[in-house]
Amino acid sequence: MHAYRSHTCAELNKSNVGETVRLSGWVHRVRDHGGLLFIDLRDHYGITQVMADPDSPVFAEIEKVRSEWCIRIDGNVLARDESLVNPKIPTGEIEVFIRDIEVLGKAEELPLMVFGDQEYPEETRLRYRYLDLRREKMQSNMVLRSKMIQSIRKRMWDKGFNEYQTPIITASSPEGARDFLVPSRLHPGKFYALPQAPQQFKQLMMVSGFDKYFQIAPCFRDEDPRADRSPADFYQLDMEMSFVTQQDVFDTIQPVMQGVFEEFGGGRKVDSEWPQISYKDAAKWYGTDKPDLRNPIKMQDCSHHFRGSGFAIFAKLLEQEGTEVRAIPAPTGGSRKFCDRMNKFAQGEGLPGMGYIFWRDQGEGMEAAGPLAKNIGPERTEAIRQQLGLGVGDAAFFLGGKPKAFEAVAGRARNVIGEELGLIDKDRFAFAWIVDFPIYEQDEETGKIDFEHNPFSMPQGGMEALEGDPLKVHGYQYDLACNGYELVSGAIRNHKPEIMFKAFEIAGYGKEEVEKRFGGMVNAFQYGAPPHGGCAAGIDRMVMLLADEANIREVIMFPMNQRAEDLMMSAPSEPMAEQLMELGLRVIPQDQ
User: How far apart are CA 545 and CA 266, in angstroms?
Assistant: First the structure.
C-alpha cells in the first residue's frame, strides 16, 4: 500500500465497502458521541467520515486528535445506515472504521477556524493565509482560477496564437502608474523596473514578425489598493496581433471571453450581443466608462426643460457655458421616503442634495410631486416625464453643472438606485465595448494640453487629425466593461514614428524626450513596423466576477493588504546594511 493513501477523501463509495484503505488529510471536525468518535477527514478533493470506538486498537491515540492535525489512517470501509447517509458529499454512503493512525503534523491552537463560515478580520486571514486557504470557498476559488487560465490558454492556442514570455526586469516606462524600481548592483546609481505590462515588448514582437502573441503575464504597478485592484502585482491575458483593425481585435477576443464566462459562469446568462458605446455616450448615459448594463437605467440630458424655468438654481446654472442638467430615471422609486434616502446619499457624496420629481396617483389622475415639480410647473414636468418614459409610481433625480464635475456622482447614484429598487439582473454577465476615447484633455486652469488616455493609440484620422483641434481627436482605443468592471483594455497602436512624434509634440513632449523614454520602440518603428493592435484582460477581475466575490483578494493566492503589506512574509522589510552597501544606496529616514 502507498505510504500515505490508497484513495483521496472524495473517492470512496458503496462499491468500496469491505476494503481496507489508507487515507491522509486534515482533521476537519471531531465529534464525540458518547464513546463513539467521528472525524471528518479532509484533503484537497473532499471529505470522508472516519470513526472509532473503544474496540479500535488506536482509540486512545484518536482521542488526542484535534482540529487541523494532519493525520494518516488505515481502516475498513463500512456502509452507513440508510438513515445516516449524507447525500451532500460523494462519500456520504460510507464511513471508515480506523484500525491504525499516524500523526503526520500536529497543529497549535488555531488563530482562525477552517471549519464553518466564521468571519475573521482581513489582517488575521492574510497573516495566516495558509490556514485561510484551507477553507472550502478559498480552495474552490483557486481551483476556478487555475481551470479558467487553462481554458484561456487552450482557446488562444486554438485561434492560432503562440505564447511567448517577456522580461520581468526591464527599463522604467511610464504607462499610467508608478513603477517598482530595482537598483542595479553592476551599474551603481541606475535602476531597472518591474514591467507595468509587457506593452513595448509585445509591440516589438509584432515588428519582429511574430503576428499573433499571447501570454498570461504578471504585471507590477505601485498603486493604491482597491477592492477590485491588487496594490502590487496582477495577472492579465496579454495579446497582440499584426495587420488588424479594431473590429478584428473585438472579433478575436469576444469568443474567448464569452466562452470562458459560459464555461465557468455557473449557468448565469452571458450576453452574446456586445454593444459598442462611445466614451462620450458612456459618460452621458451611465456616468462611467465601465457601465453595468444589467442596470436598465439610462441617464438623459434634460437641460432644455430647466432653461428659463422657475427653478432658479438650475436656470442660473444653465446660463454658464458648458453646463447641463442630467436626469436619472428611477422606475418604481416614486415615494417621498425613497427620494429622501437618495437625498441622504447625495449629501454623503458632498452635495447639498439632488433635485427630484415623483409621480403618484391622486385618484383623479396622475400628479407630479416634489420641490422641482412645484417650481417648474405642470407643462415642463409632463414634458420631462414623457422624455424619460416614466409613469405613476416612478421618480427622476437631477444633477447639474459641468458634466465632468458631477458625472461620477451621477453614475454612483444610478448604481444605488438600480440596487435599491431591485432593477439589476444579478443572474447575468453584460458586456459592452467602450470606444472612441479622447486622446487629449485640457487643464482648465493652465490651458495646457496633455494626454487623457493612452498616448500610444493610433489617432483616428492619422496625421490629418492631429493638424486640427486636439480636443476633438479620438484614438483607436477601447475597453471592455462587464457588470461595472473594466475587464479588458487595448488599442490599435501608433506604429508610425512621424505620427507618434507629432502626438507627443501636441502634449508638450519633444522628439528628444520621446526617444529617450521610448527609444527601443521608436527605433524599431524605423524598420518596417506593421499595423498592429491588441488588448489585455484582467485575470484576477475575471475570476472575481465568476466566483461572485466583491473583493479581488478572495481570488488571489497570497495577496497583500490595503497598505500593500504581506503580513505573512513580513514584506516590505528593511534591507541589511551589507545589501545597501553592495548597491551603493543609503536610506534617508522619513519624518514621522
Answer: 11
Q: Please give the C-alpha separations between residue 147 and each of 45, 131, 150, 264, in angstroms, as whole numbers.
A: 15, 22, 5, 9
Amino acid sitting at position 537: A
Round to the nearest angstrom and report the end-to-end CA distance of the chain: 62
Alpha carbon of residue 42 to chain centroid: 31
Long-range CB contacts (< 8 A, 24+ apart) of 176-180? 176/454, 177/221, 177/222, 177/223, 178/221, 178/222, 178/223, 179/220, 179/221, 179/222, 180/220, 180/221, 180/222, 180/232
The whole-angstrom separation of Cα 252 and Cα 244 is: 10
Angstrom distance (rounded) from CA 412 to CA 267: 28
- Residue 591 per-residue DSSP state: P
Residue 176 pLDDT: 63
Q: Beta partners for 237?
A: 216, 537
Per DSSP bridges, beta strands 276-278 and 431-435 are: parallel
pTM of the model: 0.93
Which tens digit of pLDDT belongs to each residue from 22-65?
999 999 999 998 889 999 999 999 999 999 999 899 999 999 99
Best CA proximity match to 552, nearest among 198, 153, 233: 233
With a CB cutoff of 8 Å and minimum separation 6, the contacts of 461 are 473
| Beta-bridge mates of residue 42 | 26, 47
For residue 533, the surrounding DSSP H or E stretch is strand 532-538
Q: 465: which residues sit within 8 A by CB, 6+ positions away?
A: 459, 473
Exposed / middle / buried, residue 574 (Cβ in 10 Å: 0-12, 13-18, 19+): exposed
Peptide bond into 572 cis (omega under 30): yes
Sorted by sequence, the CB contacts under 8 Å of residue 263 that are 6+ apart come out as 151
pLDDT value at 454 more than 90: no
Per the DSSP assignment, residues forming a β-bridge with 316 are none
3-state helix, strand, coil in the chain (%, to 5): 30, 25, 40
Rounded Cα distance between 145 and 237, Å, is 13
What does the alpha-carbon distance between residue 140 and residue 550 come to, in Å, rounded to a whole number? Answer: 16
Pairing between β-strand 47-52 and β-strand 94-105 as defined by DSSP bridges: parallel
Q: Which residues pair with 249 in a beta bridge?
A: none
Do the Cβ atoms of 285 and 445 come closer than 8 Å?
no
Exposure b/e, 369-392, CB count within 10 A at least 16 = b:
bbebbebbeeebbeebbebbebee
Q: How far apart are the C-alpha atoms of 439 and 105, rounded to whole Å?
A: 59
425 and 301 Cβ atoms separated by less than 8 Å: no
Cell 463513539 sits on residue: 36
Counting DSSP H helices and E strands in the chain, the numbers are: 17, 26
Summarize pLDDT for 158-177 with one digit per residue, the tens. 999 999 999 999 988 766 67
- 3-12: average pLDDT: 97
Close Cβ partners of 555 (under 8 Å, ≥ 6 residues apart):
141, 142, 144, 145, 540, 543, 544, 547, 549
Cα 8 from Cα 437, distance rounded (Å): 53
Q: Which three cell numbers stand for residue 528?
A: 518596417
Q: Is 257 helix (H, G, I), strand (E, B) or coil?
A: helix
Q: What stretch of H or E contains 132?
A: helix 129-132
